[in-house]
Design a protein that fits this description.
Elements lengths: L2 H6 L11 E5 L2 H18 L4 E6 L9 H14 L6 E4 L8 H12 L5 E4 L5 H14 L6 E5 L2 H5 L1 H6 L3 E6 L1 H6 L19 H16 L3 E4 L8 H13 L5 E4 L2 H11 L3 H16 L5 E3 L2 E3 L1 H16 L6 H4 L3
Parallel strand pairs: 1-2, 1-8, 2-3, 3-4, 4-5, 5-6, 6-7, 7-8
Antiparallel strand pairs: 9-10
Length: 323
Amino acid sequence: MHPRDILLGAQASAGMLPVCDHYSGVEARMRKSLQLQVEMAQEFGTCVFDVTLDCEDGAPVGGEAEHAALVTELALGAPAGARVGVRVHPVDHPAFAADMAQIAGKAGSRLSHIMIPKVESVDDVVLAEQALLGAYAPGLPLHVLIESPAAVHRAFDIAAHPRVESISFGLMDFVSAHAGAIPADGMGIEGQFTQPLVLRAKLEIASAAHAFGKVPSHCVVTEFNDVEAMRLAARRAAREFGYTRMWSIHPSQIRSILEAFAPDEGQIETSASILLAAKQADWAPISFKGALHDRASYRHFWHVLERAHSTGRTLPSEVAHWF
């Protein structure tokens, strides 16, 4: 009679990803990111962000094989309980097959996911899955990065593929793909929340992800020295655009993302009170402070508590045992 099973049923298997996905590709930064993950897991009592080791932008031209070997070494050396993913090269890149054979083949059992950049259609997902299963038979969740207008058009087909766990929006490549039709400030902290074509792309990706129970992951904020701007962008992504995860490209961004995506104390208290009352009523409809609640709203409040737990927030003792 666990609330997760009662309220979510088959959806329960989808789980919930950490709200922050932190990218690094330079060796020193990758090592520091993995250490920071350990330190913050100890601080919050749970793993609050993923570390995605980057081959696409991290590998020097001509040094792709060496970089893949380094990423494999780092993944294999990560401590138990770490959540480590890898972004490989796109499926049409000469290094893609070697990336998959090296990284998934040797470190697949230690990875949480593999990110496939520049996915244009579900055919690219199929190719990635075939390469993955050829290298590591049990497979891994695939995260995909949508970066072009055509890919946005096909977002629902991409999200429907069962191997896809999360969809990210590639802001900078998306803007560049418009051949100057979108001004450069469409990549900035203000423009990415006001430029109509960018807004449409963000909403399409979030909608496609939610339609198939996948996790929409919001794009980068390049102005990493502006902590307040980062905090506001993360709040807008979470509260206005329906994103449940966001990229970090600098350690200073991680806490802002956690803060923005975590429910506040009032939301946690209300959610716990409603679910405890619902459990007492054997999950039948209840009246709470003059408002009707049933399983539809119970599911919402359960998700609030799940997100509170995943972001390291303190839960009331009466519901903490559920986690």
